[in-house]
């Protein structure tokens, strides 16, 4: 018998005495792992890559969340949990913050640097409001002159609870939409819905307490915090935190088990390669993504990245469509076209490391801010190269800011050093960027974008053939067939409101744009939410992208 069985009794397949998993029965959606010709990707590799992107969003080193996944797995092993619960915990530990990009815009609007505030609060005791609010107020006031601090503090204090409920609901809803599209079961989705709840009932958005929180998430609450504290402070500090938070933030039985074995696990963690060991631990049989299922999974990655900024919604999808069409204009082999399109879907992965204080800045960037932005292509390369299934996309995806004259980034490659598909993505990125609204300027017309691309060709910045292929694809794309009815029965006006809300406009700003009263705008928003079954802007935005009405 393992240690925890003395506390909770012998584990059963679907229920553990002393532990109520709080989840629906496990739905086995895993296909048999077989050798399949052509492009394929293990689900474990895709989800582990998303975990790396979540590290970026919280200002943590790559593989931090993978390390917490290993701690969670070792705890499950020691507890003697059945394979289904251990599998659920595996996926939950890697996807805990997959909805984080869905409410980044709102976080940044209050705190400025969304990544800095998340990094600061990551190791806090989330069940201790005083500890959390100290840094919340510090970050919220930092962007304001001293004479405004009292007013800012008063406003945040008065609205903190409602804001937290909305913020965490947004993250949970956005994450649920993405996870559902990956085909993960109800047990995983239910656990992730409790990402921000706490054992004491002081979490958000619903104040769920104790054993009503699914067991998988209770494990992840503890191991995620322990990994971060041990890495950022010391293993002893992690053990001290678990002891101090036992019975308030963490399930006391899980805390007791960690206090017995945690030091050994943390020592073990320092000696392994997290990526390799996490993939070895992927629940079997491995699910392999191919063909349409692979494309949908990469669309999930694209939407996860792009929903971070209202100005980027649909960006990767649009680039992917344009790249595929342009590659066909060049007569490239269809297998190359497929890879180029897939590379375009994941090319912005590194953007998860860039604060929205920079991405959504309504004025020109400083040199330091531009330097910060330029690291995103390097991070994209670092994340993709870990995966044998994604590595083939890297030569195109990570080169999307290289330039024909060698003055691009991050490697300074000239035209002769990149493939035709990569050159097409370079040109498509420029075209899509020019024609898209940004925080500091409105999008230009297609004609202006075409003129700019040809100017860049004349100056040797872009390759002639790639740029002309992109322009041909953009100019000759067939019009979409008119819909007999909008998705979910939305009216045309409701779709207009949804598109503006997806860009981060307030109710007042939407009203001014559409010549409607704020009350009428709010009425439309509530109708949209009711029809599509969500309650937050981020979830509505993801729905809109998925259904082709946003982006």
Offer a few descriptive terms.
single chain; 551 residues; mainly alpha; Hypothetical protein af1432; 4 domains; two-stranded antiparallel sheet; 59% helix; 1% strand; disordered N terminus
Describe the model:
- The protein is an all-alpha fold and 551 residues long.
- It has 4 domains: 174 residues, Orthogonal Bundle (Hypothetical protein af1432), CATH 1.10.3210; 58 residues, no CATH class; 186 residues, Hypothetical protein af1432; 57 residues, Orthogonal Bundle (Arc Repressor Mutant, subunit A).
- It contains 26 helices and 2 strands.
- Strands 1-2 form a two-stranded antiparallel ribbon.
- Helix 3 packs antiparallel against helix 4, helix 3 packs across helix 12 and helix 20 packs across helix 21.
- It is globular.
- The relative contact order is 0.11.
- The N terminus is likely disordered.
The average pLDDT value, as a whole number, equals 90
CATH architecture of the largest domain: Orthogonal Bundle
| Level-1 CATH class name of the largest domain | Mainly Alpha
* Oligomer category: single chain
Distance between the termini: 55 Å
Please give the largest β-sheet.
2 strands, antiparallel
Poorly predicted regions are 1-37, 476-483
- The percentage helix is 55-70%
Rg, Å, rounded:
24 Å
CATH fold topology of the largest domain: Hypothetical protein af1432
- Proportion of strand residues: under 5%
Total helices: the number is: 26
Number of strands: 2
Number of domains: 4
In which order are the strands of the major sheet placed? 1-2
Write down the secondary-structure element order. HEHHHHHHHHHHHHEHHHHHHHHHHHHH
- What's the CATH H-level homologous superfamily of the largest domain? Hypothetical protein af1432
**What sort of overall outline do the alpha carbons produce when their principal axes are compared?**
globular
């Amino acid at each position: 018998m393992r240690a925890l069985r003395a506390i909770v009794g012998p584990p059963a397949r679907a229920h553990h005495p002393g532990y109520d998993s709080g989840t629906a029965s496990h739905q086995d959606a895993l296909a048999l792992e077989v050798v399949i010709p052509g492009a394929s990707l293990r689900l474990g590799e895709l989800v582990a890559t998303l975990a790396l992107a979540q590290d970026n969003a919280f200002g943590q080193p790559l593989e931090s969340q993978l390390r917490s996944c290993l701690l969670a797995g070792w705890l499950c092993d020691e507890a003697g949990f059945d394979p289904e619960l251990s599998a659920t915990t595996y996926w939950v530990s890697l996807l805990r913050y997959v909805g984080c990009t869905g409410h980044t815009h709102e976080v940044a609007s209050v705190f400025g640097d969304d990544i800095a505030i998340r990094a600061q609060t990551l190791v806090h005791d989330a069940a201790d409001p005083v500890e959390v609010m100290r840094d919340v107020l510090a970050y919220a006031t930092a962007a304001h002159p001293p004479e405004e601090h009292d007013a800012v503090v008063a406003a945040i204090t008065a609205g903190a609870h409602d804001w937290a409920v909305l913020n965490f609901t947004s993250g949970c809803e956005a994450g649920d939409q993405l996870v559902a599209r990956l085909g993960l079961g109800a047990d995983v989705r239910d656990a992730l819905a409790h990402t921000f709840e706490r054992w004491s009932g002081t979490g958000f958005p619903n104040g769920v307490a104790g054993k009503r929180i699914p067991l998988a998430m209770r494990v992840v609450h503890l191991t995620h915090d322990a990994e971060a504290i041990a890495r950022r402070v010391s293993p002893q500090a992690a053990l001290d935190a678990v002891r101090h938070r036992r019975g308030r933030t963490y399930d006391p039985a899980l805390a007791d088990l960690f206090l017995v074995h945690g030091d050994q696990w943390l020592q073990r963690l320092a000696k392994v390669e997290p990526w390799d060991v996490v993939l070895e631990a992927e629940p079997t049989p491995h699910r392999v993504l191919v063909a349409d299922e692979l494309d949908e999974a990469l669309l999930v990655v694209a939407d996860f990245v792009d929903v971070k900024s209202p100005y980027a919604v649909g960006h990767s999808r649009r680039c992917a469509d344009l790249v595929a069409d342009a590659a066909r204009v060049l007569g490239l082999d269809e297998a190359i076209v497929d890879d180029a399109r897939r590379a375009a879907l994941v090319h912005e992965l590194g953007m998860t490391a860039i604060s929205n204080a920079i991405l959504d800045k309504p004025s020109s960037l400083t040199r330091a801010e531009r330097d910060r932005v330029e690291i995103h292509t390097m991070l994209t390369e670092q994340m993709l190269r870990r995966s044998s299934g994604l590595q083939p996309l890297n030569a195109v995806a990570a080169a999307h800011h290289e330039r024909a004259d060698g003055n691009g980034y991050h490697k300074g490659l000239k035209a002769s050093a990149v493939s035709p598909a990569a050159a097409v993505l370079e040109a498509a990125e420029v075209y899509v960027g020019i024609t898209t609204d940004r925080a500091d300027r409105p999008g230009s017309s297609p004609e202006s974008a075409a003129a700019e691309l040809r100017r860049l060709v004349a100056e040797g910045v872009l390759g002639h053939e790639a740029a002309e292929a992109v322009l041909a694809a953009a100019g000759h794309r067939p019009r979409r067939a008119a819909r007999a009815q909008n998705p979910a029965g939305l009216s045309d006006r409701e779709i207009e409101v949804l598109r503006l809300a997806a860009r981060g406009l307030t109710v007042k700003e939407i009203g001014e744009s559409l010549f409607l009263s704020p009350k009428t705008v709010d009425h439309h928003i509530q109708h949209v939410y009711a029809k599509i079954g969500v309650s937050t802007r981020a979830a509505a935005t993801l729905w809109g992208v998925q259904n082709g009405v946003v982006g």
